[in-house]
TrEMBL record, chain A:
The pyruvate dehydrogenase complex catalyzes the overall conversion of pyruvate to acetyl-CoA and CO(2). It contains multiple copies of three enzymatic components: pyruvate dehydrogenase (E1), dihydrolipoamide acetyltransferase (E2) and lipoamide dehydrogenase (E3). This is Pyruvate dehydrogenase E1 component subunit alpha. PANTHER family: PYRUVATE DEHYDROGENASE E1 COMPONENT SUBUNIT ALPHA, PYRUVATE DEHYDROGENASE E1 COMPONENT, ALPHA SUBUNIT BACTERIAL AND ORGANELLAR. Its EC number is 1.2.4.1. InterPro entries: DH_E1 (IPR001017), PDH_E1_Alpha_Subunit (IPR050642), Pyrv_DH_E1_asu_subgrp-y (IPR017597), THDP-binding (IPR029061). GO terms for biological process: pyruvate decarboxylation to acetyl-CoA. CDD domains: TPP_E1_PDC_ADC_BCADC. Residues 1-29 are annotated as: Disordered. Heterodimer of an alpha and a beta chain. The keyword Cell inner membrane does not apply. It comes from Aminobacter aganoensis. Its cofactor is thiamine diphosphate. The keyword Oxidoreductase applies. One of its GO terms (molecular function) is pyruvate dehydrogenase (acetyl-transferring) activity.
UniProtKB/TrEMBL annotation, chain B:
CDD domains: lipoyl_domain (cd06849), TPP_PYR_E1-PDHc-beta_like (cd07036). Residues 87-107 are annotated as: Disordered. This is Pyruvate dehydrogenase E1 component subunit beta. It holds the Pfam family Transket_pyr.
């Protein structure tokens, strides 16, 4: 290698530019506006998901419904580092991702109830939603499938030589699927601009990570492919934002893929029908009371006197109104026309 | 306004449940997130969390009530500052009507969203010649029958083991492996990571080495990740090795549509696997067939694809009480004899055939229903004998129409019994579209009883 490098200086130069491995950055300091925004965004996701759970219980939402409650900081923080054109793709726990991308609460909720005003015209449902306009590529029901797809989005960016990155989310459980590593290899080989965001919420359905993974440090899952990875406190939106800044910069500078392991937690069962007997109530309670992403921002806003309790109540009211409006719409919007059964199969 | 608490739906296929316990008493304060009650479904015990704040004014459905329909009024909450007695009384006026007629509960979507196929009516089922006359029968669900089949075979043969996602500690995503970990331990009941392609291959390798794995796919939709190992390794090794080694393995799990789980989770794999030489494909409808055929599949020295159905898991059937009840793979069962038309179906398709038969009987059409039970090898002797008698054939299934099981049956019958047909064979299948999520579209995508009745009328020229 060394001699080859001497003979080909142009190459040697780009080799020597190879940056040192990134380390977990310190949480960024938020401005008042950033903190207020983060508070509002996360609260919107939480209230939306609470309402979705309620509508499921009433039978307005059917099938599987996976709530994102507890994990709000991950998508909210990362979204703050993105630029127009960056793509996002994830699995079935996708409502929060769509809201964070700025998709309307009405459109998401109506998709959950299978109505014509839903983002997929009611044909996709909770697990399968997309928005071409916002570069949201789904919404995937097959564990791990989105990882290769997200790598393909990055391939397109490289192909077109645009500055965009593909933010590819998957779970700790999905991280064991074979196609993840096939994708890692190609992404590293071809230096594709993809941020692999592993949302480690400690469980894949009823299986704790220690029962399913030989290596539980997910940030190191790219080592064999020379993909750097860092662990991030996924309950702290500022830590997530810092990691997002680092990762987007890494990808946009042509360094290829990077892994962000987000240490996070889901408060609810895997889906609505999961009794969650595999973990203790204390464990859940401890996360809620000590690490809640929304409470952290709230405490900061109050401590810095950037907002009063009343100000925050007003935000909550606003958010509740948005969600109530979305729920009303999702319950009254008509079902798709019967003719839609036969559309969108082929062009 | 008092807040009504309704019986929640907790899973895609739940229609009713038992209200096992109240954790709050009348008069107790409740905040959102408090667990107020426990509900038991056939799969699990679930907690009901309050979504609103207030005081529990009245418990309408007492603890211990069984079969409470989804959306029935179960309690009344007085909002903060509201008079509790007034709240309790106010809601009480409409409560009886609501509780009695949950279909009228304030959730219009629900009636449409209910599981697409309810239990088939109980018609007189023809005796199975493989069950000795006079055998005592016990009623059990398909879920229990499958569990018992595995447990019996595991007791019988130390080389049999189960592996799959959530099969051990979680007791099965659909509770089919309930109790197996407790009886057989973690060596023989193995939780895998979510790595279908990998563990299917591990299973095939273990089978090549002489073990007898039962590989559970949480659903067969996820077996598409693993289909290469099933088709290229499991199905072909015996042939490629000139008969030296094969794979005595069972791949089992639910296949087909459940309820509202949409395109990626709603496919029937009967036709897919039936295409492959080197595989056997079994798809039972009743609990007795599920039990007798799963035991046969585990003993079979070949790879067997065993296709179950999530909606049928909770259905009750009579199962013979025998020490060792094993049914032959490759043999169809005449579910109901008749003389005017033959309706061939399998798996959940049987529910449409059975309901249609009842309507046809009322019109004076005497239909014979054949349950294929095994899709590969397919029992043409039984079908052709029936067609020789009725001269008319309709095939019913939920899978996609092109190259369906029905297509193959129709093709073979027209080649082997053309002279006996008085009408073209009609095949009823799911529509030629990915499964939509919306309740109304899902209903349209699935076959329905009226289509079967119409098809029978067409082939009988009525
Ligand atoms: C290929 C495949 N296998 C199994 C499933 C069933 N399943 C759905 S979600 C899930 C757990 C995934 O856990 P994880 O990746 O950690 O994501 P989380 O649900 O925690 O967000 C499983 C097993 C599936 N949808 N697809
Ligand atoms: Mg997880």
């Amino acid at each position: 290698m060394a001699t080859a490098a001497k003979k080909a200086p142009a190459k040697a130069k780009s080799d020597s530019k190879s940056p040192s491995a990134p380390v977990t950055p310190k949480p960024v300091e938020f401005t008042k506006d950033q903190d207020l925004n983060a508070y509002r965004e996360m609260l919107l996701i939480r209230r939306f998901e609470e309402k979705a759970g309620q509508l499921y219980g009433m039978g307005f939402i059917g099938g599987f419904c996976h709530l994102y409650i507890g994990q709000e900081a991950v998508v909210t923080g990362l979204q703050m580092s993105l630029i127009e054109g960056d793509q996002m793709i994830t699995a079935y726990r996708d409502h929060g991702h769509m809201l964070a991308m700025g998709l309307s609460a009405r459109g998401v909720m109506a998709e959950l109830t299978g109505r014509r005003g839903g983002l997929s015209k009611g044909k996709g449902g909770s697990m399968h939603m997309f928005s071409k306009e916002k570069h949201f590529y789904g919404g995937h029901g097959i564990v791990g499938a989105q990882v290769s797809l997200g790598t393909g989005l990055a391939f397109a960016n490289r192909y077109r030589e645009n500055p965009n990155v593909s933010v590819t989310y998957f779970g700790d459980g999905a991280a064991n699927q074979g196609q993840v590593y096939e994708s890692f290899n190609m992404a590293a080989l071809w230096k594709l601009p993809v941020i692999y965001v592993i949302e480690n919420n400690r469980y894949a359905m009823g299986t704790a990570v220690t029962r399913a993974s030989a290596e539980t440090d997910f940030s190191q899952r790219g080592v064999s492919f020379k993909i750097p990875g860092i662990k991030v406190d996924g309950m702290d939106v500022r830590a997530v934002k810092a990691a997002g800044d680092l990762a987007t910069e890494w990808c946009r500078s042509g360094n290829g893929p990077i892994i962000l392991e987000m240490e996070t937690y889901r408060y609810r069962g895997h889906s609505m029908s999961d009794p969650a007997k595999y973990r203790s109530k204390d464990e859940v309670q401890k996360m809620r009371s000590e690490h809640d992403p929304i409470e952290q921002v709230k405490a900061r806003l109050i401590a810095k006197k950037w907002a009063s309790e009343d100000d925050l109540k007003a935000v909550d009211k606003d958010v509740r109104d948005i969600v109530a409006d979305a729920a009303d719409f999702a319950q009254t919007d008509p079902e798709p026309d019967a003719s839609e059964l036969w559309t969108d199969i082929l062009i | 306004m008092p807040i009504e608490i309704l019986m929640p739906a907790l899973s895609p296929t739940m229609e009713e449940g038992n209200l096992s316990k109240w954790l709050k008493n009348e008069g107790d304060k409740v905040v959102a997130g408090d667990v107020i009650a426990e509900i038991e479904t056939d799969k699990a015990t679930m907690e009901v969390e309050a979504v609103d704040e207030g005081t529990l004014a009245r418990i309408v459905v007492p603890a211990g009530t069984e079969g409470v329909k989804v959306n029935a009024l179960i309690a009344v909450l007085a909002a903060d500052g509201e008079d509790m007695t007034r709240a309790a009384e106010g809601a009480g006026e409409e409560a009886p009507a609501k509780a009695a007629a949950p279909a009228a509960a304030p959730a219009p979507a629900k009636s449409e969203a209910a599981a697409p196929v309810a239990a088939a009516p109980r018609t007189e089922v023809a005796a199975d010649p493989d069950i000795p006359a006079g055998t005592e029968m016990v009623s059990m669900t398909v879920r229990e029958a499958l569990r018992d089949a595995m447990a019996e075979e595991m007791r019988r043969d130390a080389d049999v083991f189960v592996m799959g996602e959530e099969v051990a500690e979680y007791q099965g995503a659909y509770k089919i492996t309930q109790g197996l970990l407790q009886e057989f331990g973690p060596r023989r009941v193995v939780d895998t990571p979510i790595t279908e392609h990998g563990f299917a291959g591990v299973g095939v390798g273990a089978a090549m080495a002489g073990l007898k794995p039962i590989v559970e796919f949480m659903t067969f939709n996820f077996a598409m990740q693993a289909i290469d190992q099933i088709v290229n390794s499991a199905a072909k090794t015996l042939y490629m090795s000139g008969g030296q080694m094969g794979a005595p393995i069972v791949f089992r799990g639910p296949s087909g549509a459940a309820a509202r789980v949409a395109a990626q989770h709603s496919q029937c794999y009967a036709a897919w696997y039936s295409h492959i030489p080197g595989l056997k494909v079994v798809m039972p409808y009743s609990a007795a067939d599920a039990k007798g055929l799963l035991k046969a599949a585990i003993r079979d020295p070949n790879p067997v694809i065993f296709l179950e159905n999530e909606i049928l898991y909770g259905h009750h059937f009579d199962v013979p009480k025998m020490d060792d009840f094993v049914l032959p793979i490759g043999k169809a069962r005449i579910h109901k004899p008749g003389k005017d038309v033959t309706i061939v179906s399998f798996g959940i398709g049987m529910t449409y055939a059975i309901k249609a038969e009842a309507e046809l009987a009322a019109m004076g059409i005497d239909a014979e229903i054949i349950d294929l039970r095994t899709i590969r090898p397919l029992d043409f002797d039984t079908i052709i004998a029936s067609v020789k008698k009725t001269n008319r054939l309709v095939v019913v299934e939920e899978g996609f129409p092109q190259s369906s099981v029905g297509d193959f049956v129709a093709n073979q019958v027209s080649q082997r019994a053309f002279d006996h047909l008085d009408a073209p064979v009609i095949t009823i299948a799911g529509k030629d579209v990915p499964m939509p999520y919306a309740a109304n579209l899902e209903k349209l995508a699935l076959p329905n009883v009226a289509e079967v009745v119409e098809a029978v009328k067409a082939v009988t020229y009525r």
